[in-house]
Design a protein that fits this description.
The protein contains 12 helices and 9 strands. By secondary structure, the protein is α/β, with parallel strands linked by helices. The strands form 2 sheets. Strands 7-6-5-8-9 form a 5-stranded parallel sheet, with helices on one face. Strands 2-1-3-4 form a 4-stranded parallel sheet, with helices on both faces. Helix 5 links the parallel strand 3 and strand 4. It starts with 13 loop residues before the first helix and ends with a helix. The chain binds phosphoric acid mono(formamide)ester.
C-alpha cells in the first residue's frame, strides 16, 4: 500500500482499507509495548485553522509514538502569518521546506485539495469546513469492524447534523464501498443529509432511508452514530440553531430500544445529545472510538512517510 495525500474518503478502496486496518492492529500492539523509533528523523507539521482536541492531539501523539517530531500551530488564523495576509498556498510551500507531512484542518471546504495541489509533501485533511474528515471516517470504520465484527450488511443510523457534519459525509462515502449496508438518516428538516451524498448512494445502489423518528430506527440498527448540532456553522442564524438542538437526544429510554449487541458512536465533542447516564453502558463506544484514532493515525502516518 502506498499513500500520499489523504484528502477525501472516496480515494480509499476496500483492499487498501483492509491493509490499513491490518497495520492499525499492529500499531495497537506497538503502543502497548511503548512505541517505536522508526521515524525518528521525520517531522510532522500540524496546521490547524479550526479548534480541535482529538484530531490534533491524536495525530501528534501518533507521531511521537512513531518516534518522530512535531511542529505545530493550533490556531493558524491567529498565530501564523495568515494573520498578515499570507495565502494558504504560500504557507504550504513554506512548510514543504520544514516538514515531511502536513496535517491540516481548515474552515473552508476544498482547502485540503488546494493545499495538496501545491505541496511536495503529503497533505492529510484533518477536516475542511463542512466538507470531509477522512481520517475520522477511517477510525470510525475501524471501530465498527472491531466492535461489531463486520461491515458488509451493517445497519447504521446517522443522527443529528447531517448537512454540516463532515464526519458523516466521509463515513457515508466509505460505507458505500461495502456490500449490503443500509443507512438511516435521522435529522431535523434543516439539517438533512445533502443531495450529493444521497445521489452517490443511489448511484452505487446503497440502501438508505430518511426517517424523522429516532425511536423507530433504534431497534433496527447495529450502530447509532450520533452527532453534535454544530452551532459554529450557523453563523447568525441562531433561531435555526435553536430549532435543531435537542431534537434527538440519546438517553436511557433509547438504550431500552436498542439491541444488546449494538453500539453508540459519536465523533465528539458532545454537548447534551448523548446524556452522561449513557456513558456507563457497554454499548457506549465513543471513548473507545476516540482511542482508536491514535492507532489509525499511526498507521496512516507510517504509510505516507514510507
Ligand atoms: N472528532 C473530531 O474531529 O474531534 P476534534 O474536533 O476534537 O478534533
Amino acid at each position: 500500500m502506498k499513500l500520499h495525500h489523504i484528502i477525501e474518503a472516496q480515494q480509499f478502496d476496500v483492499p487498501t482499507l483492509d491493509k490499513l486496518f491490518e497495520i492499525t492492529e499492529k500499531m495497537e500492539k506497538v503502543v502497548a509495548q511503548g512505541g517505536i523509533s522508526d521515524y525518528h528523523n521525520r517531522i510532522m507539521s500540524t496546521l490547524f485553522y479550526e479548534p480541535s482536541t482529538r484530531t490534533r492531539f491524536s495525530f501528534e501523539t501518533a507521531m511521537h509514538r512513531l518516534g518522530g517530531r512535531v511542529i505545530s500551530t493550533e490556531n493558524a488564523r491567529e498565530f501564523s502569518s495568515v494573520s498578515k495576509g499570507e495565502t494558504l498556498e504560500d504557507t504550504i510551500r513554506i512548510l514543504n521546506g520544514y516538514a515531511d507531512v502536513i496535517v491540516m484542518r481548515h474552515n473552508e471546504v476544498g482547502a485540503a485539495r488546494r493545499a495538496a495541489a501545491v505541496s511536495t509533501v503529503p497533505v492529510i485533511n484533518a477536516g475542511d469546513g463542512a466538507g470531509q474528515h477522512p481520517t475520522q471516517a477511517l477510525l470510525d470504520l475501524y471501530t465498527i469492524r472491531k466492535e461489531i465484527g463486520k461491515i458488509n450488511g451493517l445497519r447504521i443510523a446517522m443522527v443529528g447534523d447531517l448537512a454540516q457534519g463532515r464526519t458523516v459525509r466521509s463515513l457515508a462515502y466509505l460505507l458505500s464501498k461495502y456490500q449490503g449496508v443500509k443507512m438511516y438518516f435521522v435529522a431535523p428538516q434543516l439539517l438533512r443529509m445533502k443531495e450529493d451524498i444521497l445521489e452517490h448512494l443511489r448511484q452505487r445502489n446503497v440502501e438508505y432511508l430518511e426517517e424523522a423518528e429516532l425511536a423507530k430506527v433504534l431497534p433496527e440498527v447495529d450502530v447509532v452514530y450520533q452527532t453534535r448540532i454544530q452551532k459554529e456553522r450557523f453563523g447568525d442564524r441562531i433561531a435555526d440553531y435553536e430549532k435543531c438542538r435537542g431534537v434527538y437526544v440519546i438517553d436511557e429510554s433509547c438504550l431500552r430500544l436498542m439491541r444488546p449487541d449494538s453500539i453508540i458512536m459519536h465523533p465528539l465533542p458532545r454537548l447534551d445529545e448523548i446524556r452522561m447516564e449513557v456513558d456507563n453502558d457497554r454499548r457506549a463506544a465513543y471513548f473507545r472510538q476516540a482511542q482508536n484514532g491514535l492507532y489509525v493515525r499511526m498507521a496512516l502516518l507510517s504509510q505516507v512517510l514510507s
